[in-house]
Each structure stands twice: as structure tokens, then as C-alpha cells.
């Protein structure tokens, strides 16, 4: 026996050896290839990666590597330590189209460093410690990104000759005041970002006919001089979020599609003098102190209106008929009237959560025949509004004071997929109601004072059979079922079957686990399901 065994073992070892040997061969081959490849690009510096398209990427270098080929077209350095960028570093690389130096603690750039690079199109020096905009930039430049530095002054001479510049970013610097006339030479400029500078003041006459995107979010702007925007005749997007504005700027260009004025100090708005904004599609006014909004009807192309976090007590009258998304959450709205929604045939998303709505006129949204999301949570409703549009896919009524659910309230909702009734005052639901909701997938019923009678088990059976994900909550009554989880409790089932008050169906034998109401078996996070975009 023993010699045979030894033979087998030896054989196995030999085989193993052969396999290992082959693997080693492969490894050697790979290593050889690697070195051959490197040898083909002998100039690629240490800590850098060079590719065939003439791009060099370096990481954690202490200087711009000397060995970079003169024919290089793109240099990308990040997380290096390059305090001063010098003329000698790159000025002879005449093919250079893109130079990116970020996160490298760079404090200064020597005069003329970029001057001779007449192929340079993109210069990005974000996330450094620059105090000045580099001087004498080449006229070929199209994109200049200087965000997250310590630049405090913008001077006309910085931009002289940059007639091709399309994109200028100087966000997160320390520019306190800006005269836009310093930018007047940038005749091709399309996009200007000045966010997060603590700017208190912008002024000047300027003419940037190609500017489409202007962002000055998170500054300290209180107002604009009259006519400031007038020359921006092609502006599409204006972001003034997070400033100290008490009124909308006058003379906004008629070309605007998106206007952002969130987090300012607006109190009252009249759009009568905004008649010219016939193209405006999105208006963001959340988190101001608005108590009234007049003349919204003049914004005749508006599709999105954001008014969350203001002090509105009534829905603004004559909302534009083009409206698709309307967010009026976190206000002081008390009442929903049919007349406000009569013409809103395009409305798809309506958010009215966190108000004090106690009255909701019957059929108030009936004409909104595209409405798919209605958020009414955290209000004072005592019943589900009647005659909601049948197109609704999700209806959120969490945190109201609803006590009963009636047939006619749900009858029409044949597209409803998500129904949230969590945290109301409902004790019982008739099992026959669920037939009206053939598409229901998620149902939230927890935090209600459920009365788990034996009749109630029918509801449970129907919901289980339909495969709906139910968050059911706990029974409050009768006393023997108190605290039981009503979708899965075997005790409730047992009590009723025992007293012949409930007949078990096939597959419903006592002891069988139902999968619903068991958080780990659910497909979605059982916290509220807020992904309204999916419909
Ligand atoms: C760099 O140029 C600026 C103006 O273009 C000039 O004021 C400054 O003295 C120059 N610095 C050096 C070191 O030449
Ligand atoms: C629905 O729209 C029609 C036509 O615009 C109008 O006559 C009717 O009063 C509207 N109904 C409601 C409930 O607003
Ligand atoms: C909940 O409903 C009961 C009657 O079922 C009522 O007595 C109670 O006041 C209601 N509670 C609230 C907070 O509405
Ligand atoms: C629960 O329902 C039963 C039967 O309808 C009723 O008799 C009982 O009073 C209800 N209990 C509570 C606490 O509402
Ligand atoms: C029910 O589920 C629990 C835990 O999920 C498990 O421990 C138990 O064995 C299951 N009972 C039956 C009868 O499948």
C-alpha cells in the first residue's frame, strides 16, 4: 500500500510543479512585455503615465518633470507639490493643448509661462493657492478654470486678447467686488462661474453677447444696478441662489430659460414687469420669505416652479397652464381650491407636503389629467381628497388626521403604485377596497391605531395575495392582539381560526410565515419611498 501511495503523491507533486512552472513563465513574459513597452516611451518620467495620444499624467510630483517630451499635447498633474510654476517648466512645449495642475499647493505662476503656447486651449489650475490670475495668457485659450484659489482681484489686463475664451470659472475664490467691464474683451464667452466668492457688489457696463450660462451662487449680492443684465441678450441660465437679494433683478434678458433665486430674502414678487420673460421654463424661489406671488401668469412658458420653504398662505393664482412640476411644500397653505388648478392640464408633480391644508375641494385636481405624483404628507386632512385624477402613480398622505378610508376616494385610482397612509388615525380598512387599486405595489399603513378584528384578516389575505409590499404596523385593539404585527401575526390568525371566526385558505395554515412586513424580505428601503422620477 505504502509505495503505491508514495508514487501517487510524487506524481501529484510533479504535476503541481509543472503547473507552477507554466504560471511563472507567463509572469516572466508579462514582465518582459511591460519593460519593452516602457522602453518604447523612454521619456515618460517617473510617477507619470504617458499615452500614445501625447498625454502625460503625473501624480504626487514635486515639480513639472523635466523629461516630459516637447511634443506632449496634454499635461495633467494632481496632488503634487509645486509651489511656483516657472517659465522653464512648460514654455517650450509648443504642441501643448491642455495643461491641468490641481491640488498642488501652487501659489504663483511666473509671467510669460503660457504666453508662447499658441496651441493651448484648456488651462486648469483649480484647488491651489493662487493669489493672482496668471498674466499674458495665449489668445488660443478656450477654457480657463481657476476655481478654489485665493484670487481677490480681477483686472482687465488679465483677459486681454482672449477672444476665443468660451468658459471661465473663478468660483470659490475671494473676489469681493467685480466690475464686469473687466470682462468686456471676452467676446466669445459662453459660460461664467463666480459662485462662492463673498462678492458684495457687481457693477459695470459690459457686452457679452454670447454668454449663455452665468452663475453667482453663494455670494453676498444685495442688488444689481439698473440695466446690469440688459446686454446679456442670449443668456439662458442665471443662478443667483444663496445671496441677499430682496427683489428680482430688473431687466432680466428675455432669452432666459432657467432662473434660480433660492435662499435669498425675497418677500413679495410681482411678475407684471417680467412680461418679457416669455421663454422662462424653470423658476426656483425656494427658501425665501415670500408671502405673495403675483402675475405668474405672465411667465407663459413656465414648466417648473419651486416655492418650497416660503410663507405662502394661498396658492398663487393663475399659474401658467404649461406647469409640469409645482413644489409648494413647507409653506402655510390652508386650502386647495378647484379654481387654482382648473387649467393645469400639464401638471405631473405636485408637492404640497408640510403645509396646514385642512380643506381640499372635491375634484380640485380633476383637470390635471397628467398628474402622477401628489405629496400631501404632514397636513391637516381628515380624509383622502375626492376625485383625484386617475393618472396618479403615487399618493402620499403620511402624517394627516385621516380616520376612515371610503370607497369613493380610491375608486378611480387605477394607476396608483405607491400609497402612504402612515401615521394617521385609521383603525380599520374594508378588504373590498383593494380591488380598485390594481397596480398598487407599496403600501404604508404603520403608525395607525389598528383594530385587528377577525374581519380584518380578510384585508390581510387580499394584500398578501396581491403581492403588495405592505408596512402594516401594530395592532392597538382588541386587547389580546395588542402589539401584534398585523400583516404577519400568527396569534391573530390563530385566535380567529380557533373561534371559527375566520376560515383558513389553502397555504394559509397556522405557522406559515408570510413574507410581508418582514423588512429584510422587501425590495425597497421601507423608509418612505420617494423616488418619484421613476414613473
Ligand atoms: C509680471 O507682470 C506684471 C504685469 O504684467 C508686472 O507688474 C510684474 O512686475 C511682472 N513680474 C515680474 C517678476 O516681472
Ligand atoms: C375643467 O376644465 C374645464 C374646461 O377648461 C372647465 O370647464 C371645468 O370647470 C374644469 N373643472 C374643474 C373641476 O376645474
Ligand atoms: C383618532 O380617532 C379617534 C376615534 O376613532 C378620535 O377619538 C381621536 O380624537 C382621533 N385622534 C386624532 C389625533 O385625530
Ligand atoms: C374594534 O372593532 C370591533 C368590531 O367592529 C368593535 O366592536 C370594537 O369596538 C373596535 N375596537 C376599537 C378599540 O375601536
Ligand atoms: C418563520 O421565520 C422565522 C425567521 O424568519 C424562522 O425562524 C421560522 O423557522 C419560520 N417558520 C416557518 C414555519 O417557516
Automatic annotation (TrEMBL):
Biological processes per GO annotation: extracellular matrix organization; negative regulation of transcription by RNA polymerase II; negative regulation of transforming growth factor beta receptor signaling pathway
Signal peptide range: 1-39
A Pfam short name: LRR_8
GO cellular component terms, A-Z: extracellular space; interstitial matrix
Keyword set, alphabetical order: Leucine-rich repeat, Repeat, Signal
TM regions (residue ranges): none
Superkingdom, taxonomy of origin: Eukaryota
PANTHER family in alphabetical order: AGAP008170-PA, NEPHROCAN
Name assigned to this protein: Nephrocan-like
Organism in which the protein naturally occurs: Podarcis muralis (Wall lizard)
